[in-house]
Amino acid sequence: MPTRMAGQTGVREYLIVTLAYWAFTLTDGAIRMLVVLYFHELGYDALAIASLFLFYEFFGVLTNLFGGWLGARLGINSAMYLGMVIQIAALLMLTVDTTWLTIPYVMLAQALSGIAKDLNKMGAKSSLKLLLPEGANTRLFKWVALLTGSKNTLKGAGFFLGGLLLALVGFRDALYILAGGLAIALITTVITLPGGLGRTHTKTTFTQIFSKSAEINWLSAARLFLFGARDVWFVVGLPVFLSAQLLWSHTQVGSFFALWVIGYGIVQAFAPRLVRHSHADAGPDGATASLWAFALLLTVAGLSLYLWQFETVETGLIIGLGLFAVVFAVNSSVHSYLILAYARREQVSLDVGFYYMSNAMGRLLGTVLSGWGYQTGGLLGCLLLSFLFIALSGLFSLKLPRMRALR
Q1: What integer is the mean pLDDT of 314-328?
Q2: By the 8 A CB rule, do 113 and 87 touch?
Q3: DSSP secondary structure letters along 244-298
Q4: For residue 405, is it within any domain?
């Protein structure tokens, strides 16, 4: 059994985990914007800059696969601390002389950052399962929604922070500031958070990283295609379209994406108010996931039809993307709750790690297909791929159980 005793509310620990996650997320958003803008200044083209982040996504898949096993062996908070240490190392790696900043070197640094991000996310989200008593479904949904939503809002703020630091102090000093701030957050968290959270006293074998739970497997499949449906237009298709077709400046494109992510995060935090359940003490279930998946399908269908008829009209496109952000945010919050509801309390990090491995695979698949989709069919081609992915996510959601209680 985990070291945390069931029945304790864990509000103080929840706040500590949330603050640590916020600190990490600010650096995650800032380092991405720093890399994009700085290497653009150095003369790298868009394809070369995009390649810098491939390892970030690829190693996210591996990290989630192995990170759950690591969390079960060492404790969830240990995995979270390790993620923060690796992120500090990734930031400091980029402070070397410019001559060292080749594409392979920066890809390696971004690989470390991807590992750090998913270790930290797995640790932070898994801990919520153990900080609440069994059966506290509604409170768990609220806590997950707030943690996830605030994370995405702060990632958008991190985009702004990265650009601001680059303008004020330059690339290298910005990295030192971010690494120093995260080190302070790490030390504070280690001192204040109880040790051994989520560590099991039974031997955890490597084969246990693969889930044997049918509902977690279906949910993971739905999550893979849900996030693939976002990134298949979000990563390459939309920024290129806004720049090449609508002639937006780099500042306009960057500001739009930052505001989109911030708005998306705000909606995630308020998702419990948008979702209705059959019983007051029960969180969302499989029916909720299916309903919102097909609502997202209708949103993408409408946006695709609009783009087909009015390709260069900005207003409707922006409104459609805003609506996508709202419906997608609710989908993401429902999924984030369900994985904790379905996860085994005694091995929560294993189930959460497996689930977020699927999330990372979806992002990687979406990233790769975004370039291909735009090259073959423009932004409309990307949206049609998104429609297909959401349809698959909705179909997998139909296999999820209804009215499932926490374990």
Answers
A1: 91
A2: yes
A3: HTS---HHHHHHHHHHHHHHHHHHHHTHHHH---SSTT----HHHHHHHHHHHHH
A4: no
Q: Which domain holds residue 61?
A: 11-397
Distance CA 387, CA 320 (A): 14
Between CA 253 and CA 258, with CA 254 as vertex, the angle to 5 degrees is 120
Q: Which of 152, 25, 147, 3 is nearest to 77 (CA)?
A: 3
Residue 127 lies in a domain: yes
pLDDT per position as a tens digit, 122-141? 777 777 766 666 666 777 77
Quote the Cα angle for 81-86-89, to 5°: 130
Report the CATH number that the domain containing residue 268 is assigned in CATH: 1.20.1250.20
Q: Which residues contact 22 (CB under 8 A, 6 or more apart)?
A: 150, 151, 154
Number of Cβ within 10 Å of residue 136's Cβ equals 17
Distance CA 389, CA 223 (A): 10
Q: Per the structure block, which two tokens stand in for 146?
A: 């707030």
Taking only Cα atoms into account, the Rg of the chain, rounded to an integer number of angstroms, comes to 20
Query: Distance (Å, rounded) from C-alpha 316 to C-alpha 92?
Result: 43
Q: Would the pTM count as exceeding 0.85?
A: no
Asked if the structure places residue 172 within a domain, the reply is: yes
